[in-house]
């Protein structure tokens, strides 16, 4: 057998295999995701949001029903690769909790829930900011970062979050571009 023919065949075989795998992965990421399964994970999303914004002297994320906002935003306002990334992140979280804590996330203690979310936060970020930007651009926003962002947006735009969690002036008097803050003042819901 001729060595050149063998090497050419091997290069063609590897190239075709690599390109077909890349094409498969690109098609899988950009295909339509089954976002209806988020409705079955509503309780999990509620618990995750409550760990991010817990109830204190103000209502928490669970009180503001942030899980409905998260589901609607993922279902109607994100591209397929972000939907896949979010659904895969939820599945990874469930597998991680099951393997390391031998129970569901909802059954974990408060400190265990915080540990789990800290693990996923550390897993979703790289040390160099430029790598994070490239990763977000090419592969979409990481699961935990998107979950955290949607939780904060959902809470701050809900009626409970805007009126009880933030300082809300229903009928503002006049516009003041710079005002002094008082001690323990809440952030403003309206600007």
Mean pLDDT: 83
> What's the structural domain tally?
2
| Beta fraction | under 5%
Provide the succession of SSEs: HHHHHHHH
Distance between the termini: 77 Å
Q: What is the count of helical runs?
A: 8
The quaternary state of the protein chains shown equals single chain
Q: What global shape is seen? A: elongated
Describe the structure.
This protein is mainly α. It folds into 2 domains: 30 residues; 134 residues, no CATH class. Helices cover 63% and strands 0% of the residues. The longest helix is centred in the N-terminal third of the chain and has 28 residues. The chain is elongated, with a radius of gyration of 23 Å. The chain starts with a helix and ends in a 26-residue tail after the last helix. 21% of the residues are buried.
How would you summarize this macromolecular structure in one to three sentences?
This protein has 191 residues and is mainly α. It is built from eight helices and no strands. Helix content is 63%, strand content 0%.
């Amino acid at each position: 057998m001729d060595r050149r023919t063998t090497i050419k065949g091997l290069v063609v075989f590897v190239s075709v295999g690599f390109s077909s795998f890349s094409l498969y992965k690109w098609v899988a990421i950009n295909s339509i995701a089954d976002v209806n399964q988020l409705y079955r994970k509503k309780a999990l999303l509620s618990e995750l949001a409550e760990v991010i914004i817990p109830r204190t002297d103000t209502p928490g994320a669970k009180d503001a029903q942030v899980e409905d906002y998260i589901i609607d935003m993922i279902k109607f306002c994100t591209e397929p690769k972000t939907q896949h990334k979010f659904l895969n992140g939820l599945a990874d979280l469930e597998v991680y909790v099951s393997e390391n804590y031998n129970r569901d996330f909802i059954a974990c203690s408060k400190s265990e829930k915080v540990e789990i979310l800290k693990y996923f936060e550390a897993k979703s970020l790289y040390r160099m900011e430029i790598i994070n930007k490239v990763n977000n651009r090419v592969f979409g926003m990481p699961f935990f970062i998107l979950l955290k962002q949607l939780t904060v947006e959902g809470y701050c735009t809900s009626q409970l979050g805007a009126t009880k969690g933030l300082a809300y002036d229903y009928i503002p008097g006049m516009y003041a571009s710079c005002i002094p803050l008082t001690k323990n003042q809440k952030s403003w819901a309206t600007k």
